[in-house]
Amino acid sequence: MTGRRSRFARSAALLLLVAAACASAPRDPLEAPPPSPDLVGSLAFQRARAEDTFVDLAPALRVGYVELVAANPGVDPWLPRAGTRLVVPRARLLPSGPREGIVVNLGDLRLYFFEPGQPPRTWPIGIAKDGYATPLGTTEVTAKREKPTWIPGPSARRDGYPEKVEPGPDNPLGEHALYLGWPGFLIHGTNDPRGVGRHSSRGCIRMYPRQIAWLFARVEPGTKVRVVNEPVKVGWIGGQLYLEVNPDPDQSLELDETGKSSTVREPEGLRELVTRAAGKQASRLDWARIERTALRRDGVPTPILLPPGPARTATR
Question: Using one digit for the tens of pLDDT, what is the confidence trace for 4-57?
């Protein structure tokens, strides 16, 4: 009897060790990704509480509202069921093109900052609402101001704003502003964090207060700013090719306004993009997974190469 109890105790202890190991082990490779020049951040997960709403969760989790909604399809952003496992999309593939200065990607509602000798950083941003737009192209930071005064433009004046808004809690620019070579367009903080990660501005780029403060301290006039629109990105992580597909502009606006998207469409040029990125590994492309990822558009980087094996034909 003593021996049987001893064996039972050892088995129970082993099961507890296995359970602890499973609990602490990453559930997704991107929770603890290997170093990659194409990736910034890591994926996280959060259990929803009964009182949670995405508009309040997003600032607390340091992500944007629309990207949180996109990463959790089928979850009601205003009434998520208690205990629901939420994806927190902090892992992002870098946009294409030069990796220097500030890169604003309207396609994923994110700002990327490349500081020489440092790993890249990224933060969610609020962008233009319906009827307004942020210019695409290249400019630079021309000035930076702490506690800026806001001079509302004609459209803001029509909405009832005064000729001038002094620094303070009613100033939509928040505590920090970076002025760009495009007159009237700024990268700035906000007095309402709920507008970050959404279509909420007249063309300016809004950031959470703590994040713009960090960026403000490291950016000087003359810093290059490039604005792109890339909902679809690809990159290599640990020898695996990943695909990230975000909502297109219409879907993003619909997610912002309704919490769900009724349109499903695959991005144009997707096949050419992933084939070119795969290069000599194109025969390993998993076209079924690529199609699912493209239609899901959840903004979460997804591996798209089949395991090494006999040569395959790259077809759908």
Answer: 455 444 444 444 433 433 444 447 899 999 999 999 999 999 999 989 999 999
As a whole number of angstroms, the longest Cα–Cα distance in the chain is: 88
> Quick one: DSSP state of residue 144?
E
Sign of the CA dihedral with 183 first, then 184, 185, and 188 last: positive
Q: Are 188 and 204 in contact (CB under 8 A)?
A: yes
**Which residues are annotated as catalytic?**
188, 204
Residue 148: name the closest of 100, 65, 216 by CA: 216
Residues 217 and 103 in one domain: yes
Question: Distance between CA atoms of 300 and 296, rounded to whole angstroms?
Answer: 10
Q: Using CA atoms, how far apart are residues 102 and 92, in angstroms rounded to an integer?
A: 15
Residues recorded for the chain = 316
| pTM beyond 0.90, yes or no | no
How many distinct structural domains can be found in the chain? 3
Q: What is the DSSP letter of 11?
A: H
Answer yes or no: are the C-beta atoms of 301 and 30 closer than 8 Å.
yes
Residue ending a domain, among 205, 228, 251, is 228
222 and 131 share a domain? yes
